[in-house]
Amino acid sequence: MDKAATDGWSVRQILAQQGILIAFVLAMLVFGLFSDRFLAFDNIMAVLRQTGIVGVMAIGVTIVVIGGNLDLSVGSMLSMATVLVVDLHDRIGPGPAILIMFCAVLAAGAINGVLVGYLRLNSLIVTLGMLSALQGITLIYTDGKNVDIANQSDTWFAIFGRGDIAGIPTPIVMFFGVAVLGHVLLTRMPFGRKVYATGGNPRTAVYSGIRRGRIVFLTYLISAFTVGCSALILGSRVMGSQNNVGQGYELLVLSAVILGGTSLLGGSGNILKTVIGVLILGFIQNGLLLLGFPYYAQWLVTWVVIILTVWLDVASKRHSLWSPIA
Amino acid sequence: MTGEITPVLSVKDVVKTFPAVRALDGVTLDIRRGEVHALLGENGAGKSTLMKILAGMFTPDSGSITLDGREVAPKSPLEAKALGIVLIHQELSLVEELTVAENVFLGALPRRSFGFVDWNALHRQTAEILRRLNCDFAPTSIVGDLSIARKQMVEIARALTVDAKVVIFDEPTASLTDQEKLVLFDIIADLKAAGVGIVYISHRMEEIFRISDRITVLRDGAYRGTLDTAATSEAEVTRLMIGRSLDYSRNTETVAAGAIVLETRGLSCGDLFQDVSFSVRAGEVVGFSGLIGAGRSELAETLFGLRRPTAGAILIDGAEVSVETPTNAIRHGISLVPESRKEQGLVLGMNCRDNITLPQIDALRRGPFLSPAAELDIYDSYQKRLSIRSPGWRQLVRNLSGGNQQKIVIGKWLAMKPRLLIVDEPTRGIDVGSKAEIHNLIRELARGGYAVIVISSEMPEILHVSDRIVTMYHGRVMREFTAAEANEDSLVQAISGLN
């Protein structure tokens, strides 16, 4: 047993480092075997289109998490943004509606940023509080009612959720566009390096002349911006909005980030892996439905997948699947 | 003694590899009954890895461990302890919230029926062990309330709860007072008389020569030899360790000091330090000597903009400036190599290059994007200049030895091309070889026209590198010495507040 463990290390190392990719390919194969519709082009495009909403936000949250913090407020921030943009659409037109929606999410993100970045309050508490505060604001704003767009067929607002750009559905374009932007920001620009440093060791960052508060503040603005983008997709696809439409998205988003292997301790992770994490979640959800599982079974399966991923991640750091010392 | 023929513990050809690092490369060692066997080596030489293998925390890739003639392979610390191999950690591994007795018997608390803890037996047995160790605290004291030295004694008490065959002490005296050291040496003598084999790891030569019977030296994960303590000398051991001997001679260089770069006038920061006035010229090294809590590091942090002064002035090139943030200090040409490299100097999960370029990352751009070429240039030149030993720039600094980590921090701040370089405890916890290199570097920087402030608690180090020495006591400057007039006695007097 012990000998096998040492010999098998290199295999395990590969598993641990590329586990997420392997899991992805395996999941695709299994679903593909059992359902002939799963790997059909139409189905894949449908899944990609759906994952856009979670995907765009996951990019923003990945950046927050690399910076060493959490953002749990994205769920109800998405509710607020979608309700706002849909409700204002008919009153003041799509352009101004979008503008006001972005102002609102950026304001919420800025409050998160000031509290966590400058006042250095615990991000879990701050954003959990924001989650509940924004849901409250949204319910007050709508007076508990749902909102919708009256004339759904001829508004250019449809482009975000229903349209396509150069033949590719807009949500997919936005997801990959934001992912590329995020990746460039993190790996090719000084700001990204500072985010990694701040998340990796905040004290060292300060001792290196990095303004930690500002970096954290900006990561929350980025996260809020991505929520705004997701609200465009969601609002435009449904052309209406329940007042709690974003509920539960914070967990989906965080699951995707964790699946991608971004450490919740901060300082490590990357966008590309988050993208794969998002895709895995999306395809699992879709595959289970195609196989005839009840809708809510995906929640259970998602949990199992996350636990397995986290275990592999931890095991690779400890150089062993189970170890008596941390 | 017949013990010479059958060692209690022998280690044969042990190899342990971590990703990218071969930590142990065929190490062989045997510990006899009733001997104190010192294990020496620079940081990164593999001592701790070897000890962790013996204590069941790591599994070796190959090689064998024989205890009492039987091959063993402990897979956990508990298993190793049951076999009779006990490791007394360098980093204390106590549960602060629990009592002394609970810590001593942690994992093996005496039980009554139904699994309830037998408190009476626990306290009785602990009290007995504490008596053997001459400890002045009770089994019921909370560990968190004890001084570090006393915690060390609790750690040792743990070793005595089992029938130990081999006890490993990893830097046991690092935090003990002279008095407590004597007690420890007595305990070691007792264990020795009882036939226990003792492995003693320490950087302190005088201790090793005082208590050990044999000395084994490791270098770069490889076995370098075993010497009889009685038949060897410090110089020979050092040579085995680093391949040459260390120069601790007094600094006699006379520098042509240039203009004053930094001056403080009556600088104070709350109750951390008060009324500090001194100056540093280009081309000179000013040493700051003092005890922990004398305010030296706090002074450095204030000069670097990490703390706001409450009174007084900082002058750079004769003009008063306000240094309110590190960014500001950097702009004025001040660099600080902080006291704790892991907590303040490095991002351990980042690679070598990214750590070195971190403070100037905003400047290393082509357009809005980072320039990998400019970054690599900086890494390459400081890697060469400081002879940083790393498999490449992609290596995470976490995987480097202490000495190389320290060089990364120094490189990071030299790369800022500062006019004033402040180094706080430049050689704490690093090996002798790197120590000498860093001392040379500091002298070389001064010759190159840098103004340098060195803060160190090691007196030979201060005397070795400084042109002038400022002594501090309780937040105040006591006396200033030139290199020629200072000696250990006068420094000790000044930093103890006896002027």
Question: Overview of this structure, please?
Answer:
The complex is a heterodimer of chains A (326) and B (499). Chain A is an all-alpha fold and 326 residues long. Chain A has helices spanning 2-7, 9-34, 41-66, 74-92, 94-118, 123-142, 170-188, 190-200, 202-207, 212-238, 249-259, 271-290, 297-318; strands at 147-148, 164-165, 168-169, 240-241. In chain A, the strands form 2 sheets. In chain A, strands 1-4 form a two-stranded antiparallel ribbon. In chain A, strands 2-3 form a two-stranded antiparallel ribbon. In chain A, a hairpin with a 2-residue loop joins strand 2 and strand 3 (168-169). The longest helix of chain B has 16 residues, at 178-193. In chain B, the strands form 5 sheets. Chain B has a 6-stranded mixed sheet with strand order 6-7-8-3-9-10, with helices on both faces. A 6-stranded mixed sheet of chain B has the order 16-19-20-13-21-22, sandwiched between helices. A 4-stranded antiparallel sheet of chain B has the order 2-1-4-5, covered by helices on one side. Chain B is 32% helix and 25% strand. In chain B, strand 11 (260-269) and strand 12 (273-281) form a beta hairpin. Chain B is of the alpha/beta class. The chains are: A mainly alpha (326), B alpha/beta (499). Chain A binds chain B through residues 2, 5-6, 13, 184, 188-190, 193-194, 196-197, 200-201, 203-211, 267-268, 319, 324-325, and chain B through 18-19, 56-57, 59, 61, 73, 75-78, 304, 306, 325-327, 329-330, 336, 338, 343-350, 354, 358-359, 361-362, 364-365, 368-370, 412.
Write the layout of secondary structure elements.
The complex is a heterodimer of chains A (326) and B (499).
Chain A: H1 2-7, H2 9-34, H3 41-66, H4 74-92, H5 94-118, H6 123-142, E1 147-148, E2 164-165, E3 168-169, H7 170-188, H8 190-200, H9 202-207, H10 212-238, E4 240-241, H11 249-259, H12 271-290, H13 297-318
Antiparallel strand pairs in A: 1-4, 2-3
Helix pairs in contact in A: 2-12, 2-13, 3-7, 3-8, 3-10, 3-11, 3-12, 4-5, 4-6, 4-10, 4-11, 5-6, 5-10, 7-8, 8-10, 11-12, 12-13
Chain B: E1 9-18, E2 21-31, E3 36-40, H1 47-54, E4 62-67, E5 70-72, H2 77-83, E6 85-88, H3 100-104, H4 119-132, H5 148-159, E7 166-170, H6 178-193, E8 197-201, H7 205-211, E9 214-219, E10 222-228, H8 234-242, E11 260-269, E12 273-281, E13 285-289, H9 296-303, E14 311-316, E15 319-321, H10 326-331, E16 334-337, H11 341-345, H12 352-357, E17 365-366, E18 369-370, H13 372-385, H14 402-414, E19 420-424, H15 432-447, E20 451-455, H16 459-465, E21 468-473, E22 476-482, H17 488-495
Parallel strand pairs in B: 3-8, 3-9, 6-7, 7-8, 13-20, 13-21, 16-19, 19-20
Antiparallel strand pairs in B: 1-2, 1-4, 4-5, 9-10, 11-12, 11-14, 14-15, 17-18, 21-22
